[in-house]
From TrEMBL:
SMART domains: Proteasome_A_N
Proteasome alpha-type subunits domain mapped to chain residues: 10-32
Source organism of this protein record: Natronosalvus hydrolyticus
Record's function text: Component of the proteasome core, a large protease complex with broad specificity involved in protein degradation.
TM annotation in the entry: none
One GO CC annotation: cytoplasm
Assembly mode: The 20S proteasome core is composed of 14 alpha and 14 beta subunits that assemble into four stacked heptameric rings, resulting in a barrel-shaped structure. The two inner rings, each composed of seven catalytic beta subunits, are sandwiched by two outer rings, each composed of seven alpha subunits. H.volcanii produces at least 2 types of 20S proteasomes: an alpha1-beta proteasome and a proteasome containing all three subunits (alpha1, alpha2, and beta) that appears to be asymmetrical with homo-oligomeric alpha1 and alpha2 rings positioned on separate ends.
GO terms (BP aspect): proteasomal protein catabolic process; ubiquitin-dependent protein catabolic process
Name assigned to this protein: Proteasome subunit alpha
Main location: cytoplasm
Family: Belongs to the peptidase T1A family.
Keywords, alphabetical: Cytoplasm, Hydrolase, Proteasome
Compartment list: Cytoplasm
HAMAP family: Proteasome_A_A
Length: 254
């Protein structure tokens, strides 16, 4: 009983390390990320691709209200996995920092600079009493000095740079798929195809356009672009990933 009481003490105290050097609340925040639907980021020679599984729980829900990809600045996009409300707070913070940089220095903020500013903010919530860590992981992708950059933020406040990554549900399977199929020399369309194929690999091999979010940041234009459902459907058809149920429903409507 005494050991259990000690465990609960470390469990509840965000600012207290356990004897083996763990912060349990941070680990619980990571578990919250795993419960969120998957998000994928891929860095290619032609730019950055962000793709998310939006999974609509009810036909009565407006598809557009499920937001997992956000524009942080003209040249930076962010995808999230975990608690949506926590993600919105961090994305609003990132947008403010981007604007501050524009006003203060007269130039766009760097992708790495923005990521580390956000992770510094996240880290503060791992050592302040009366607060809890953010239960969300972000994928921050954009163009910096003409080069595509891709970062992950962790609930501990640690930034990681990746060539391709997945966060959220099925991370192990998705990461394995990306490791096997990633091509560093691929163009932007190749990155889109890989992202959709990865999502389909954990969704019975097919996807619905309204249940996928997709955005790109082109290295030439340095512009964030979020794709509409009809554009996503075109990519799904080209890669033979469109859910057959979608076609059957359309035929029935006709």
């Amino acid at each position: 009983m005494q050991g259990q009481a000690q465990q609960q003490a470390y469990d509840r105290g965000i600012t207290i390390f356990s004897p083996d050097g763990r912060l349990y609340q941070v680990e619980y925040a990571r578990e919250a990320v795993k419960r969120g639907t998957a998000s994928i980021g891929i860095r290619t020679a032609g730019g950055v691709v962000l793709a998310v599984d939006k999974r609509i729980p009810s036909p009565l829900l407006e598809d557009s209200s499920v937001e997992k990809i956000h524009k942080a600045d003209d040249h930076i996009g962010i995808a999230s996995a975990g608690h949506v409300a926590d993600a919105r707070q961090l994305i609003d913070f990132a947008r403010r920092q981007s604007q501050v940089n524009h006003l203060r220095y007269g130039e766009p903020i760097g992708v790495e600079t923005l990521t580390k500013t956000v992770t510094d903010h996240i880290q503060q919530y791992t050592q302040v009493g009366g607060a809890r860590p953010f239960g969300v992981a972000l994928i921050v992708g954009g163009i910096e000095n003409g080069e595509p950059r891709l970062f992950e933020t962790d609930p501990s406040g640690t930034p990681y740079e990746w060539k391709a990554l997945a966060v959220g549900a099925d991370r192990g399977e998705l990461q394995g798929f990306l490791e096997e199929n990633y091509d560093e020399a691929a163009d932007l369309d190749g990155g889109v195809s890989l992202a959709l194929e990865a999502l389909a690999s954990v969704n019975d091999g097919s996807l619905l356009p309204n249940e996928v979010g997709l955005a790109t940041v082109d290295a030439e234009t340095e512009r964030f672009v979020q794709l509409e459902d009809d554009e996503i459907e075109t990519h799904l058809v080209e890669n033979d990933l469109l859910d057959e149920g979608e076609d059957e429903d359309e035929e029935a409507d006709e």
